[in-house]
Write a structure and sequence with these properties.
elongated; 2 domains; Pectate Lyase C-like; 16 strands; about 260 residues; alpha/beta; six-stranded mixed β-sheet; Transcription Regulator spoIIAA
Length: about 260
């Protein structure tokens, strides 16, 4: 494959390209690197800005030009945070960006996106990911009482060093390994073993739940409540639910939790 060609099918093409003078006036229409708070950010242009949208072909060419230019200001082995914004990216595109960064001793670590499909692709490819509502700045807080985002479904193993953040419920079809973490404004459901850190209701909702087929967490958090795993692991495992009771976080069998819910109603 020619390294200057975008590693995607021909069906992904550039949309009407904005005039050069408009690109110069609006940095949101360009691929660019930026140093912020000690981090190296790679910012991609938005898919829709003032009626224009840059397709993947144009984005890829801009990215290659930035990488190959002599204006590098970063140190070798620097980690990169990809600000994808509203751009739809698949696993191949994300991996192509990571591989090209690696050729210049840069390492893609985390992906920020407002697109659920991009968040799924990033987690599937093994990158930490943070999905957020479309805002102009990463640190802008969400409005109080804002509705949760659509659930994020990830069919992959969450490996050590990975972190997934989502403003809604997170469903993992796979294992969550030690050294990884899941942070969700909603519930966390793991169809597998949960052995990392899980924080449900991260925006303060204590009614959220953490569920797993095999619950062996390093740490559990629901809202502001924190609990650690018992020192001795059980000899047998079955689906369990963690929830907040009057005395703090409790863990019970999923079947017993259903009965508790029926009684409380």
């Amino acid at each position: 494959m020619n390294s200057d060609s975008p590693p995607v099918s021909a069906s992904v093409s550039a949309i009407s390209s904005p005039p050069a003078e408009l690109k110069e006036q609006n940095p949101n229409l360009q691929v660019r690197f930026k140093s912020e708070g000690g981090r190296l950010l790679l910012l991609l242009p938005t898919e829709s800005e003032n009626g224009f949208g840059a397709g993947w072909t144009e984005v890829w060419q801009q990215f290659k030009q930035r990488i190959n230019s002599g204006e590098r200001f970063w140190q070798p082995n620097t980690t990169v945070h990809l600000i994808a914004r509203d751009r739809l990216l698949d696993v191949r595109q994300l991996q192509a960006i990571a591989d090209t960064l690696a050729e210049t001793d840069l390492h893609l670590k985390r992906v920020y996106t407002s697109r659920r499909q991009t968040a799924v692709a990033a987690a599937t490819a093994g990158f930490s990911v943070e999905q957020h509502t479309p805002v102009s700045h990463l640190n802008q807080p969400s409005e109080a009482g804002q509705a949760l985002a659509e659930p994020l479904y990830v069919e992959a193993t969450v490996r050590s060093g990975m972190e997934i953040r989502h403003p809604g419920t997170v469903v993992i079809l796979g294992d969550v390994n030690p050294g990884s973490s899941i942070v969700a404004d909603g519930d966390i459901v793991v169809w597998g073993s949960l052995r990392g850190v899980a924080h449900a209701g991260s925006s303060g909702n204590e009614r959220c739940l953490i569920m797993a087929l095999r619950l062996e967490p390093t740490q559990l958090r629901i809202g502001e409540h924190v609990a650690r795993a018992p020192e001795k692991s059980p000899t047998q495992f079955q689906p369990e639910v963690a929830y907040v009771a009057a005395e703090g976080i409790r863990i019970t069998k999923s079947t017993d939790f259903t009965k508790l819910r029926l009684v409380s109603q």
